[in-house]
């Protein structure tokens, strides 16, 4: 029997013509890897992702090396990438003004701040309360916008938190409003530990819409811990979300939330979008080749189901 290499295309009512894939593999995908990945390999990973047609690729984080040693080579990576590493479609994470200074020094013009819907994760991930982290982000966003940069605001633990349990929708909306009120261009709703389900996603998107943040301003960022990432993404797209975060191969996690596993795999997303006839610009076969190559570098198979089906990996 030959396994199909592409799905049949059958459009579904209520779905858009196009979705933007926001690739987080080099950042979220690699921030949690036990194996040290040489910076040349990271640069090659980014080049392969771009060659596969992904347009928006989040590259790295400008955080202290002691907090995330895996991404301690941010400057070197951007240097190696050269002009390809710059531009509004190559965002990097910056938590504070020191991070922004480092990023600006490298010529970065697109940054992401990252808040938390819960107090416990704010403390663990940012060493601050939610209110103190908003205070930390305010000058970062102002200076970035004044300099003409594009700014994304992540909110983590939007559905559940490993220490606090279920997170009330109103609490998430409150943090989203505080970050978007700083003037950010885009919100990314993080299901850091992958516990969300489609009805919960719709309830959050409805509540945000009621509060003045429409689905056209939001991206979704699902980790696939419980196998819900793709179902949640489809619900969000149907509700009007047009930017979906995904990680090639399904790598990912968060060093400060051990229960976070890999992100929605870009290949799994692309298979679903291709099946629905939704444009996204990426080439599935090239993504699978990239994940297979990356798996060899990391010494473990890619978690993506589509990669396993297509590459036997
Ligand atoms: P802190 O220790 O409170 O920072 O960390 P500080 O301001 O007290 O500074 C301590 C030292 O670090 C000082 O140096 C600073 O200069 C230096 P010293 O005087 O001791 O020599 N420093 C820096 N150095 C380089 N770059 C910087 C920087 N900032 C300070 N940017 C901090 C506070 C926010 C920095 C820390 O908690 C941190 O970096 N946290 C980030 C952790 C992280 O990256 N987590 C993973 C990303 S979030 C995620 O994955 C979730 C997401 O995917 C969405 C989802 O899934 O939900 C986005
Ligand atoms: Mg994440």
UniProtKB/TrEMBL annotation:
CDD domains: DRE_TIM_HMGL. Keywords: Lyase, Metal-binding. Gene3D superfamilies: Aldolase class I. GO terms for biological process: ketone body biosynthetic process; L-leucine catabolic process. Residues 19-288 form the Pyruvate carboxyltransferase domain. Pfam families: HMGL-like. One of its GO terms (molecular function) is hydroxymethylglutaryl-CoA lyase activity. InterPro entries: Aldolase_TIM (IPR013785), HMGL (IPR043594), PYR_CT (IPR000891). It comes from the Bacteria. Belongs to the HMG-CoA lyase family. This is Hydroxymethylglutaryl-CoA lyase. It comes from Ornithinimicrobium pratense. The lineage of its organism: Bacteria, Bacillati, Actinomycetota, Actinomycetes, Micrococcales.
């Amino acid at each position: 029997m030959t396994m199909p290499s592409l799905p049949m295309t059958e459009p579904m009512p209520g779905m858009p013509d196009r979705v933007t894939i926001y690739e987080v593999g080099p950042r979220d995908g690699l921030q949690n890897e036990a194996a040290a990945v040489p910076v040349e390999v990271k640069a090659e990973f980014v080049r392969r992702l771009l060659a596969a047609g992904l347009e928006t690729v989040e590259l790295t984080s400008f955080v202290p090396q002691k907090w995330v040693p895996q991404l301690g080579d941010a400057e070197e990576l951007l240097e190696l990438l050269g002009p390809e590493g710059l531009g509004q479609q190559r965002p990097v994470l910056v938590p504070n003004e020191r991070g922004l200074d480092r990023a600006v020094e490298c010529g970065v013009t697109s940054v992401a701040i990252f808040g938390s819907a819960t107090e416990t994760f704010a403390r663990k991930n940012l060493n601050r309360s939610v209110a103190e982290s908003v205070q930390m982000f305010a000058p970062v966003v102002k200076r970035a916008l004044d300099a003409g940069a594009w700014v994304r605001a992540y909110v983590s633990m939007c559905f559940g938190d490993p220490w606090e349990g279920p997170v009330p929708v109103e609490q998430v909306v409150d943090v989203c409003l505080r970050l978007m009120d700083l003037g950010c261009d885009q919100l990314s709703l993080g299901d850091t530990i992958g516990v969300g389900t489609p009805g919960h996603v719709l309830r959050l998107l409805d509540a945000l819409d009621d509060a003045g943040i429409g689905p056209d301003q939001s991206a979704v960022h699902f980790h696939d811990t419980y196998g819900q990432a793709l179902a949640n993404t489809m619900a969000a797209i149907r509700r009007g979300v047009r930017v979906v975060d995904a990680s090639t191969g399904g790598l990912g996690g968060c060093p400060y939330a051990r229960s976070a596993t890999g992100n929605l795999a870009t290949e799994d997303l692309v298979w679903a979008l291709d099946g629905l006839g939704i444009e996204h610009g990426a080439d599935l076969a090239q993504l699978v080749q990239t994940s297979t190559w990356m798996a060899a570098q990391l010494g473990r198979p890619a978690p993506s189901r589509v990669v396993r089906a297509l590459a036997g990996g």
